[in-house]
User: What shape does this take?
Amino acid sequence: MDRMDPTWLDTDAVEAWLKNRIDGFQGPLRAEKFANGQSNPTFRLITPNREYVLRRKPPGQLLKSAHAVDREFRVQSALWETDVPVAKMYVLCEDDDVIGSMFYVMEAVKGRNINQPTMDEVPFDQRRKINDEMARVLACIHAVDVDAVGLGDYGPQGNYYERQIGRWTKQYRASETDHQPDMEELMDWLPKNIPADDGLRTLAHGDYRIDNMLFHSDTPDCVAVLDWELSTVGHPYADVAAVIMQWQMPPESRGLAGVDRKAQGIMEDREFIDAYCRYAGISEIPQFGFYMAFTCFRMAGILQGIKKRLIDGTASNPQRARTAAAGVPRFAASGLAAAKTV
Assistant: This one.
């Protein structure tokens, strides 16, 4: 098999490397690729005694600072003994020669992965409770004492939005494939409208949504928050806006636009924001339109990277990548619409 194929994993090489690095690890090893995980290919590792999960950087030429599996490993290791539910981290391999790119191995947490915010497969009486649990866990993430857990240097000092807008503008330019007028206007508007510094500096997940969480098989309790690739020490309100941004997308894009939420038994946008504020101990989130515009801009940048990988032939899941690539103009337009509410 071709090492550049993101759907393939050299299980012999992985087994040999893990043999003396995880207590109790024993082959033979086989792997199954998860369908999700557009950015960093993710595999279930199956052995006679235990299952694990491996996340790796994709093969091929990558954008600088993207696909940071080493940061994922570091933050989840730091959070293991906090109130934030995460998988146990086992080992990080920084040697690209083992399988062709950096990877880490963590425990395989048992739980429900809910792919759609409509939660059709979830018992009706659990749906609002799961929305509430999402708000509670997000507030727990933002309450982490980053210095106490060794993450004080996990993000640079200074204004989070300044550096994020700069970073994602560069990432977008590096993967740009066509002209997007709404994206150009949004990239011009954002740096001119950053809210005054409120002094908040917390851990931020960066891609917080229901399908990046695992829930107990029988209860609304969250057992693990996944996909920490975009995490940093930054500003909390972008995470709140990310949830609302996702919900405002159409159902085919894992959103809730047009869904009768009361009939579905799920929260309205305002109810989720109020629940988060209650758990975070604050009264409101001012200038929420800016945070919505920012998260839409960043999502458009992420999807543009997927679009570029699709064109280059290195997309982890080509079918899903085509759907994701079509979202670039949609998120740019949504970001502009949110900007007009500020």
Observations:
- The chain has two domains: 11-107, 124-339.
